[in-house]
Specification:
The chain is built from twelve helices and no strands. By secondary structure, the protein is mainly α. It has one domain (about 15-305). The longest helix is centred in the C-terminal third of the chain and has 28 residues, at about 280-305. The chain is globular.
Length: about 300
């Protein structure tokens, strides 16, 4: 899953921005592949806990080494905590979905996010959405239905979890529009890691006490713990690459590059699990990607007119 951010005070460099964004899209599916591999022996909620726990530790370590420990509280502690809670919940949904379906399929369904975000912005922020973008939203949702139809029949409602992830991430982006980011990347990474760790740690504790099979802590082996640490490191590095990219290039330039994630996930999924999307899934992917690209195009045109 890829994420956007912006910042001031960094020189614009479109070529470097594209390189950073492409690198992130190639790297992030490795995290999802590792999560799918671990889901054979560990509950997805524990895998997600590991992701944010190690992200928290890495952020804390970097802050100590760079003398920035006192800055970790940030200027928006409550908002930053809310960001972490949303990302933590979204990650649980996504890591649970890849336990039952291929990573490429889950990521493809997740990419209805631009359509959901556009609809939310119209409803909650009263942004104007014309008939063309409404049409693109409907086409994108049709693509999701094409992908979901066989998965709903085979694995049930769990196949809707990538849609839940997209909804939660759209809420996260709406929150960023309402409360623009005022802290640096390290503070945001630390806050997200800490709040998500506390949330998921509490969920695991409750799950263990209540005897909930899918939400209790399983003692990982050394290799599983190492893989969990790798997931946290990739999360930290991938987020950093995306933020750095959006600091140096505009959204309309970088947004289309997010679909490299589907290609990377498909290749890795085939190499590790022999998963490969079938014909109808590729049709759905084409509809979703086409709709996302068109929405990006219309947003760019809208900004040019308003600017």
């Amino acid at each position: 899953m890829n994420r956007r951010a912006t910042a001031e005070g960094v020189d614009q460099n479109p070529l470097l921005a594209m390189l950073l964004m492409s690198s992130a899209m190639l790297l992030l599916p490795v995290m999802d592949i590792a999560a799918k591999y671990l889901s054979a022996s560990l509950p997805p909620i524990e895998i997600t806990f590991g992701r944010f726990f190690f992200q928290f530790l890495i952020s804390l370590g970097v802050a100590v080494l760079t003398g920035r420990l006192t800055r970790l509280k940030g200027k928006q502690p409550v908002v930053n905590a809310m960001r972490g809670l949303l990302l933590g919940t979204a990650s649980v949904c996504f890591f649970t979905s890849v336990k039952y379906m291929s990573v490429a399929t889950a990521i493809s369904i997740f990419f209805v996010e631009p359509m959901i975000l556009t609809a939310m912005a119209a409803l909650l922020l009263k942004e104007k959405v014309g008939p063309r973008r409404i049409g693109a939203i409907l086409v994108g949702l049709l693509g999701a239905i094409v992908i979901l139809r066989p998965n709903l029949a085979e694995i049930g409602l769990v196949s809707l979890l990538p849609v839940c992830t997209a909804v939660l991430f759209s809420v996260y982006l709406i929150l960023n529009r309402l409360y623009p980011v005022r802290d640096d990347l390290l503070t945001i990474q630390f806050s997200a890691g800490l709040s998500a760790t506390l949330l998921l740690g509490a969920a695991l504790t409750f799950g263990g006490l209540a005897g909930i099979e899918c939400a209790h802590f399983v003692l990982p082996t050394a290799s599983e713990a190492a893989l969990g640490a790798l997931i946290g490191l990739i999360s930290f590095a991938g987020h950093g690459l995306v933020v750095s990219a959006f600091q140096r290039g505009n959204a309309s330039l970088l947004a289309p590059l997010q679909y490299i994630e589907i290609v990377s996930a498909t290749l890795l999924g085939y190499l590790v699990f022999s998963d490969f999307p079938d014909g109808p899934t590729w049709l759905g992917i084409a509809l979703i990607v086409g709709s996302g690209l068109y929405i990006t195009h219309r947003e760019r045109k809208q900004k040019q007119v308003s600017g």
